[in-house]
Design brief:
- This protein has 111 residues and is mainly beta.
- 8% of the residues lie in helices and 50% in strands.
- It has one domain: Cupredoxins -  blue copper proteins (Immunoglobulin-like).
- The chain is built from one helix and nine strands.
- It has a five-stranded mixed sheet, with no helix packed on it. Strands 2-1-4-7 form a four-stranded mixed sheet, with no helix packed on it.
């Protein structure tokens, strides 16, 4: 499908990638983060010395319907965004048994 000039301008003004930094279990932004749908990536960088879980779910769905990915201490994960993707996310803390004990939301992420 052909894009209008306005659609092309909007897409080209979005960055190819964005980084969300996690410090003290808090994302550095609680606002919407957007990247281009043409190969856009969102990086989650953990500045803390403890593992977190990042839960992603489709906007409009229940948070519990999402998927969880481990964000290792001092590590990073990258999420690819395609056309019309939009997800909420939560930075989750694990208790001593490895179960989720709390989460701090952010987002959405998308394009």
């Amino acid at each position: 499908m052909a894009m209008t000039g306005t659609e092309k301008a909007e897409e080209s003004s979005l960055p190819k990638s964005a980084t969300i930094t996690i410090c003290d279990q808090h994302p550095n932004t609680m606002d919407r983060v957007e990247v281009t749908p043409n190969g856009g990536r969102i990086h989650f960088q953990n500045e803390d010395q403890k593992d977190y879980g990042i839960r992603f779910w489709k906007t409009g769905m229940e948070e519990t319907s999402g998927i969880d990915i481990v964000l290792p201490a001092g590590g990073s994960i990258t999420v690819a965004i395609k056309q019309d993707d939009e997800f909420g996310y939560s930075v989750m803390l694990f208790d001593n048994d490895g179960k989720v004990s709390s989460g701090k939301g952010g987002g959405p992420i998308g394009n």
